[in-house]
Write a structure and sequence with these properties.
three-stranded antiparallel β-sheet
Length: 235
């Protein structure tokens, strides 16, 4: 009688503790550390390159009819020789701007005309922008200087974004087509395309501007005779 052939034992089923799974897990852990570490390095590197430990000194804005306010860090450290902007009566400007906003809220057509000094008065009277932004206009080109603290940004709470940019209105007055050029951050020139970039999940600068224009119902933005002209959409 023929003896049965001895069959090899069935292979054991491999679990997640097998070499294959351990390799995959190790790779995932490595990629996780690389992603987090690389992200932190990018934030630290870009933050240190394009930010400063001290605010820049912006010209002081003096409003003739506004109560004295607490100075911003930028003004506290300003040089005694830093020039000041010409004084502006702020209350008439505030009245015109609020009337412009109310018209936008009611979907009514309205226009406003502002000099650089009047824009600075509005910025000075707003606690969110006071001492952080200064505007000048020359040859119908706006120049925006800013010094913004990063106190709400992790790893950057003791630093400031200091810079400048030029703003040119579109010939057809379309606010979305306004050109933002000649951008510098911490004395470093950066590409104009940075206003369209989303970094670290943050919205782009142009997106934030578009949202503000939409909220304010701004239909037209022009710079003529060194004055900013704005117009609401209206019905």
């Amino acid at each position: 009688m023929t003896e049965p052939t001895n069959l090899p034992p069935a292979p054991r089923a491999g679990g997640c503790c097998g070499m294959g799974c351990l390799t995959v897990m190790a790779l995932l852990i490595f990629l996780g550390f690389a992603f987090v570490g690389g992200g932190l390095w990018a934030v630290h590197h870009l933050g240190r390159k394009y930010s400063s430990p001290e605010p820049s000194t912006l010209p002081e804005v003096i409003t003739l009819d506004a109560p004295a306010s607490v100075e911003s860090p930028a003004l506290e450290r300003a040089s005694p020789t830093q020039p000041s902007a010409a004084p502006v009566q702020s209350r008439p400007v505030e009245t015109r701007w609020k009337a412009f906003e109310r018209a936008a809220d009611r979907n009514e057509k309205a226009q406003i005309e502002l000099t650089a000094g009047e824009i600075n008065a509005l910025l000075q009277n707003n606690r969110n922008t006071r001492g952080k932004v200064f505007v000048s206009i020359e040859n119908n080109v706006g120049r925006v200087r800013f010094s913004v603290p990063l106190k709400d940004v992790p790893l950057m709470r003791d630093r400031y974004v200091n810079g400048e940019a030029s703003v040119e209105a579109s010939p057809d007055g379309d606010p979305a087509k306004a050109r933002i050029t000649n951008i510098t951050l911490a004395n470093n020139s950066v590409p104009d395309a940075i206003v369209d970039q989303h970094m670290f999940g943050w919205p782009s600068l142009r997106g934030l501007i578009a949202d503000w224009l939409s909220d304010q119902e701004i239909a037209s933005f022009r710079i003529e005779n060194n004055r900013v002209l704005g117009e609401t959409r209206g019905r």
